[in-house]
Amino acid sequence: MLRRLLPLTLVCTVLFAAGARATTVIPPTFDQLVAGARLIFVGEVVSQRAIWQPTPRGRSIVTIVTFRVDEVWKGSLGNQTQLEFLGGTIGEDRMEVVGMPEFTVGQRDVLFVSDEVRTISPLVGFMHGRLRIVHDPAGVDRVAAYDGRSLASTAQIGAARSPSLLSITPMRLSELESAVRARVTAAGRAR
Amino acid sequence: MNATRRFVVGAALVAAIVLTTGTTTRGFSTLGSTWANGNIVMHLQLGASSGTLIDGASSWGSVAESALSIWNNYLNNARFTVIRDSTVSKGDGDLVNNVYFDSAIYGAAFGANTLAVTTRWTRGGSARVEADVIFNTKYSWNSYRGNLRSGVEDFRRVAIHEFGHAFGLDHPDDYGQSVNAIMNSIIGNLDTLASDDIQGAQSLYGGGVSGNVSFPPRNEPNDFYAQLLLVYQNTLRAGQSATYLDPEGAVIWLTEYARQRVGQCTHATAEERTLAQITGTGGTLVCALTPVGAIPFPPRNEGLLFMNDLNATYRDTLKRSQGTSFVDNEGAVVWVLEYLRYRLNGCGHGDAATRVFQQILGQGIQPVCR
Questions:
Q1: CA distance A68 to A71
Q2: Other C-beta atoms lying within 10 Å of the C-beta of residue B1
Q3: Is residue B342 helix, strand or coil?
């Protein structure tokens, strides 16, 4: 019985992993997140506001989110920074880009800010460059993906989703920080 | 880790997969806004392909049109229509639904890894008024079926997914669910709709089913109505009533209203769907299959409400002139529905007409034919 289970396990794993890619976004791996980021910081949303923005073809709504910067893991930043996301609500008009991150005041995240200029989302990999911080009952900060899925390790960032992830122990924020800093340091040495 | 422990981990993983895939609850997710009932006009502005695509399609536009029609099979109260090779301006917030390739989204870059984007505008809460779908020219596109191919994106399945966003579906797997769906945020080898996608579409736009009750061919109710007019004129000596309906219109749309009611639609839904057909924006699906047993028919007052609104539609929307009829609205509703009730319960055309006229002449409700 047990001998039959192993091949079955492998088949299931392959099925879930094969050829997976996001329709709107190809999920970046952890290494791609770090390498593609100009800034990586832990921040708390302190305010946000939506404004009309003229475009070459009409006008759009953008939301400017202001973060209090708690820690900077890559790049340099002051105590506060602002990021601009396409979409938002002004009066009765609401413009959305499906999948665009939405924030609430008081929320803490790890943000991987892209080195690209003037993108619809300033984050690496659109929504994937936002990792959520969850304060567990024991007082430990843990990390989840943009959509709240727990992440056991950095290897799961950008990987195909597996139902087995539902019961994992989420990685600690401190573990993520160590992994990010190690990659940043390694990349610096490689130059 | 020794061999036994690896097997145990393997068994646990299999159990987790079985458990999680077997306990999917709600499935599809929606974006919280919907279009008004009617047509959702998509301006296809995709340009020419560089040759025949892998699946034999001759253009991006034809692939997009095919992707839209896949959804249309399951939409009823709203449906996509297209303007091929549209030359309308591409703009955001202009209430026009543009579908096109570009290297940017209204001046802003896609960002790395982004294949396509759907923007959506809502006004006043949940009323959707615009959706633009933009495909990133940075990628190599083609159109094919089956497993994803390396280095070439499948325009068709991405289009199906994006059009699902355009009318209001979200990613079911972003809500802790594990379902098989093309609307999942991660695309795999699934290249068309899964049942979860279809259920999502139907939840938003009152999708339905093909009716399972056969109605008589159109000429027979028309013939009945012609006889009814003579009975009212010559036997009942009825005066003429003002109406904006012609006899054929009255019969066709009363029959369609009855068909929707027999197909388990409420009065409001049946009326909405029938009147939408008159203006060319409705589908012909009904709400649900009719259960085995006696065919249910709407109460008289609801039929009359429909008839009055139908009359108003002919007057106000179709701008028909006022005419006269020996059969007033109430008589039309009562006796056409009664004729159909006999027909759907086993009576032939002649039998049904005779039974209705017996009722009109005061001989009471006649038994059905089964």
A1: 9
A2: 7
A3: helix
Confidence check on the interface: ipTM exceeds 0.95, yes or no: no
Where does B88-135 have alpha helices with state H? none
- Which helix (H) or strand (E) is A45 found in, with range? strand A37-55
CB proximity under 8 Å: A 138-177 to B: 147-149, 160-164, 166-167
Task: Determine the longest span between alpha carbons in chain A, in angstroms.
Answer: 65
Q: How many CB pairs under 8 A join A and B?
A: 186
Q: Looking up tokens 């319960």, which residue turns up?
A: B345
Q: Nearest-CA distance from B194 to chain A in Å?
A: 16
Predicted TM-score of the model (pTM): 0.66
| Closest C-alpha among B293, B249, B286, B292 to residue B266 | B286
- Residue B360 φ then ψ, to 5°: -60, -35
Structure-token pair, residue A99: 């999948």
Residues of chain A contacting residue B19, judged by C-beta atoms under 8 Å apart: 163
Question: A32-85, pLDDT tens digit by residue?
Answer: 999 999 999 999 999 999 999 998 888 899 999 999 999 999 999 999 999 999
* Dihedral, A146, A150, A151, A152 alpha carbons, nearest 10: 170
Closest CA to B229 of B325, B151, B353: B325
d(Cα B179, Cα B20) in Å, to the nearest integer? 9
The closest of A130, A24, A117 to B113, measured between CA atoms, is: A24
B110–A119 C-beta distance less than 8 A: yes
Helices (H), chain B: 3-22, 60-72, 155-167, 195-205, 219-230, 247-262, 267-278, 300-316, 329-344, 349-360
Residues 119..138 of B with a Cβ closer than 8 Å to A: which? 119-125
**pLDDT value at residue B9:** 30
How many Å apart are CA B163 and CA B202, to the nearest integer? Answer: 14
- Smallest CA–CA separation between B20 and chain A, in Å? 6
Residue of B nearest to A167 (CA): B16
DSSP-assigned states of every residue in B276-294: HHHTT-----BSSPPPSSS
CA distance B327 to A125: 68
Alpha-carbon gap, residue B38 to B80, rounded angstroms: 9
**Closest CB to B173 among A2, A9, A161:** A161
The tokens of B66 are what? 């095919």
Give the pair of three-digit tokens for residue B330. Answer: 């109430």
Percentages helix, strand, coil for chain A (3-state, rounded to 5) are: 25, 40, 35
Q: Does B111 touch chain A (CB under 8 A)?
A: yes
Residues A164-185: tens digit of each pLDDT: 545 678 899 999 999 999 999 9
Separation in Å, CA B308 to CA B10, B246, B262, B279, B286: 67, 14, 20, 17, 22
Query: In 3-state terms, what secondary structure has residue B200?
Result: helix
pLDDT digits (tens, 9 = 90+) for B64-83: 999 998 888 778 788 899 99
Q: What percent of chain A has pLDDT above 70?
A: 83
pLDDT above 90 as % of chain B: 56
